[in-house]
């Protein structure tokens, strides 16, 4: 056969394939339309009832039942581990085999850290929290103030947070019912008239803002170096829900993401609605994709920094959903993200709490005005889908202490020098922190 014939034959084959593809997609479309027509014709009432209840459900989730979305340590970033009987073991193997890098900064910077959401700590409630290499007991007295104390009773070492009771503003040990007052001093011992002097538990400075109880952690034992006013949004707007992730990384990696401007269009470009754009980039034109520009800068006070982000959602070259975000970083572990969208404002409160030297609990809590509740509820999920893309990288990366910086990375360098203010002479090293049995 001549070459010309071969080429013609090849072209015919290709044309046939294209025709087949066209026919099959046409057929699929036709079948879908027929199904829809059939359902609409014969189940019209059921269809409208379904839409009605879906609408009611969305309203219910938006206004009365805040959305909750959570991902554990092994759930994000392990798609490369094949399915099968031993998948869990293989994930653990991947986690254990990971190299975290060298010269990691101390794992617990100085600052305010979120311990428990206010709504989860009722009057008389007690919550046990293990974080920052400490075992803490958080309780709310009858004066409605949340307090944070060391969990261990000085008598025989029972954990006050496990079975302890709140009496007035005191915490009572579950083992022999010794009571400790607001200042940590022992105020009562059953069957003992005079309490010996000098028996006390350690108390920690705490504050309750942004719908959360925070503890002040300082390696030098200093009182809080800054305080934070409650935000207007958390006081006046409605709470729409939260998403939370456990992340296997050093705490510094999380806020560094905001200064890493270049990653935005690499990691967060594909539509949050579906990951299909990664595999078939041409679909991004139809489904839409995100376009970001951002600027990180130090704030007016030492412990503050801010990021200005401009976001576009592009479909066929049109920006269909522009959003501007102003991000305020307050210390090492507290962020307020204020969204200005065509459908109204929204605010996310982010907190990062090291529950082990290299395990962070990251929580995002969403607030919006009442009229904007549906968008707020959706934001809980939309933000979670975008954040999961960062988590997949954090859960597998290693820390690089001296990166090769290019021009776009200059804010990463500035960020690292800014963040170093939260470490101090007595900051526990990673090596020492890893000796702590809290690490697992
Ligand atoms: S251990 Fe707490 S009262 Fe005895
Ligand atoms: Fe990111």
From TrEMBL:
Location within or outside the cell: Membrane
| Keyword hit for Metal-binding | yes
* PROSITE patterns recorded: RIESKE
A Pfam family matched in the record: Rieske
What does the entry give for GO biological process?
Answer: cholesterol metabolic process
Record EC number: 1.14.19.21
* Reactions catalysed: cholesterol + NADH + O2 + H(+) = 7-dehydrocholesterol + NAD(+) + 2 H2O; cholesterol + NADPH + O2 + H(+) = 7-dehydrocholesterol + NADP(+) + 2 H2O
- Coiled coil location: none
TM regions (residue ranges): 45-64
The family note in this entry says: Belongs to the cholesterol 7-desaturase family.
Name it: cholesterol 7-desaturase
